Amino acid sequence: MSYRLWAREDLRTGIWEVTPGEFKSTRPGYDEICQILSGSGTITEPDGSSFEIGPGTLFVTPAGWEGHWTIRETVRKMWVVKNVPADAEQ
């Protein structure tokens, strides 16, 4: 579930929530800044490295990013997204 709070041209922000489970995620054509408000989980990068997320975690997923999310406790995050030209992706 995602709620858009504000948008102007190629910049948007909102609140997103997901219940426990696992899924893959990509960032095609946009950079995203995320701050976890509540919940917990693990994000695993394609190279096998991973990091824990929980309240206060702040991270960036750049355009072209791919990862696997494992959500243990319902996660609520604030997000900011900026579109980028295809030639500027990773």
TrEMBL record:
It comes from the Bacteria. Gene3D superfamilies: Jelly Rolls. Pfam families: Cupin_3. It comes from Arthrobacter nitrophenolicus. Residues 12-78 form the (S)-ureidoglycine aminohydrolase cupin domain. InterPro entries: RmlC-like_jellyroll, RmlC_Cupin_sf, UGlyAH_Cupin_dom. This is (S)-ureidoglycine aminohydrolase cupin domain-containing protein.
